[in-house]
Structures are given as C-alpha cells and as structure tokens.
Amino acid sequence: MKHHTTAPAALPGGHRLFYVPPQGLSLADRAAARRQDSGQRASWPVPAYDDKTPERAGFNAGIAYGLWGVQPPYAQALAALTGHLTSHAMNVLVTHQYIVTAVLRRGLATVSVLALQGHPRTITDPGTHPDVRRIADAWGCISLAAGPCLYAAGQIPEDAPEHR
Description:
- The chain is an alpha+beta fold.
- Helix content is 32%, strand content 27%.
- The chain is built from four helices and seven strands.
- The strands form two sheets. It has a five-stranded antiparallel beta sheet with strand order 1-3-4-7-6. It has a two-stranded antiparallel ribbon with strand order 2-5.
- It is globular, with a radius of gyration of 16 Å.
- It starts with 26 loop residues before the first helix and ends in a 9-residue tail after the last strand.
C-alpha cells in the first residue's frame, strides 16, 4: 500500500460500488460479467458500545484479506486500517450498531464502516485519524439511506499476487 499525506478526492482508478458491464450484452451475459468482476466482499455487524469492537473488526478483515490471497504484511496492514477506521467511527458517529465491510477488487482493498441509522457527532473525515492517513491511499465519508459511512482504500502493490 502506498503512503500519502493527503487524500485524493475520489477513490483511485475510478472505483465504483459495483461493476457496470458494457452495453449490448444480453441480461445473462451482463449478470455473468458482473459476477466475474465483483471481486471479494465480506461484511460483519459489530456493536457500537463495546471497547473490543475495533479489534474484532480488524481481526475479521485481516482474516478475510488473508483468505483472499493478500500477502500477510498487507493483510495485517488492512486489519490495522479496519481497526483504526472502526475506532474513528466510534468516536465521531453515534449509533447502536456498525456494519464493517471489506472488499478486494482488482488489487484495490476498500474498508467501510456504516453507522446504522446513526448521525455524526463531530467532523467525520477519516483523514483526521493519523493511522488512517498513514495506511490508506484514499478515504472519505458518504451519507447513505442507512446512515453515514466512512471508507478507506488502498492499492495492493503490484509485487503482491494477482487479485480478481
């Protein structure tokens, strides 16, 4: 993962929440193309008021990235990123439950923490957390119908094994 001191406005490589297949394909071909390009994804609900929540979220994400073939040093960095992002969310977003999601698609690892039906208590920018800034290439906060969502992303270096 690269180390940046400032966050780009958008995720690297024009990352989208979902793959959009090219036009002109049948519905079955579009569904197959979307399945093939969706990458790996895992989500975990975690409680909002448990001091162990960031540690558990980081552990789950580290295991997932390891199972998806990410080399151990990068899986550990992504586990730390998840823990730091979750800790930051617990400090700035008021809610009863978080949904932590890890995604790996084409070498881009993205972690998000959704505050289910939550609301911000203060500035939510994950870039204000020094460890998120140190590990991630990009970060931000978006408002979803389910609540505010913090995210951070990092590119797995090219010397790491190929990813879908």
